[in-house]
Amino acid sequence: MALLQMKGITKRFGSLAANDGVSLEVKSGEIHALMGENGAGKSTLMNVLYGLIKPDAGEIVIDGKAMDFASPLSAIAAGVGMVHQTFRQFPNLTVWENLVFQNEPGNGPFVSADAARDFVRKLGAKHGLEIDPDSRVRDLAVGIRQRLEILKALSRQAKILILDEPTAVLTPQERDSLFAAMRHLASQGMALILVTHKIPEVTAVTDQITVMRDGRLTGTLTTAETNEAEIIRAMIGRNVPPTVATKVVSTATPMLSVRNLSVRKANVAVVDDVSFDVRPGEIVGIAGVSGNGQPQLISAVTGLERAVGSVVVAGKDVSDFSIADRRSAGISYVPEDRHLTGTAPAASIADNIVFGTHRVSDASHRGFLRKEAIRTQARRLIEQFRVKATSEQVPIGSLSGGNMQKVVIAREIEHQSPLIIIEEPTRGVDVGAIEFIHKTLIAERDKGRAILVVSSDLNELLALSDRILVMFEGRINASLTGNDMNESTVGGWMMGGVQSA
């Protein structure tokens, strides 16, 4: 008998059936993939299992016992753990304080910090996910924060573990360590559910694959008996060829010139004397293992971070400009964290689309917002960018991650800036949306825009980039073009020195 049975789960949000009679079974010792396009209902189904959402109909059975989860605490008590795609963390606390929250070691009201630190170190070493227990979460790169989320889930003695896009910001080595940990947990009798859009990961680590489309179950595949093409067809009903941009060499005057840029934190240069150019009509990718200064570099260029050095956009020195003035000078920016920085989740899609241009566009007149014009623009972009939403007036936070990402990209492209800076363009995005986003970026490059892309997905950078800059310990240690843009060479520079292909 299956360790987990979800029978006829139905959940509606207004007229939208996010889950429509969905059933799922996962056996003890099994790693089970849950796949589907953004908006297919995967996250809703897992939130029902974790007690975050109450289903309108259906039943959850664990170890033969019917469950009725009132909250995540009751789900955890029943043996369900979850690694969330969106972080659940206290940014002002340390790693160890986050990790042992509600399970603090010590006697009575007194917490043993030493015991907690030791627990973090041993847990990290055990699973190959080491992390400094005394670091403040707010100071961590996104990749390290994701590592903390994984450790939090692994620290709980769960029978069923849900992993929602857990490798989105991990290096290949970290990913492999996670897979080893997953296999170990499965060998101990746990049931693991991997929610991911990365088909190679599914074929590498899972036993079964369940596919959803438009809130319904469309089929279950045995991993060993299927292939990537069949999985893609099950997800979106068609084949999707890989997107590989035709490489170009731009000789135009740089749209972005960065010279001798440095960012220091606690007397450490996290960005150390960095210089580079991005020209109109080219895509420049920035590669690097998480924690080597990529987010701080982009924050310095966009004005989010104080820096020493110069930033020139379209021939204008913007080094002392505010964020808003840099945007007016010609920068569009898609941040890596679409929830925290890229959107106001409680605001509507329409409001999020007009943010940043509401004072200078057709959206306002004599200081007053033109609400119908804002909604018309939003409806046009929703259709153009194939955003799955019931209305332009729904909160953007109610969208799936991929659809939220499409809205942010639509807003920044609509801004018509000559320079687009985009971090993690397809993190947590399904294969169909990845194809759309990649083709959109290539089309904008071909229109003459200068595009700077930062991605933890090396395959994405290799597919999109005309040049790749590699960061290591806060410096750019390689600028690669042509035949040098291959996984072996780029990966070698990411680790600090080139390795032979």
UniProtKB/TrEMBL annotation:
Its main location: membrane. InterPro entries: AAA+_ATPase, ABC_carbohydrate_import_ATPase, ABC_transporter-like_ATP-bd, ABC_transporter-like_CS, P-loop_NTPase. It is found in: Cell membrane. Keywords: ATP-binding, Cell membrane, Membrane, Nucleotide-binding, Repeat, Sugar transport, Translocase, Transport. It comes from the Bacteria. GO terms for molecular function: ATP binding; ATP hydrolysis activity. SMART domains: AAA (SM00382). It is a peripheral membrane protein. Residues 4-239, 256-498 form the ABC transporter domain. It holds the Pfam family ABC_tran. GO terms for cellular component: plasma membrane. Belongs to the ABC transporter superfamily. This is Simple sugar transport system ATP-binding protein. It comes from Rhizobium lusitanum.
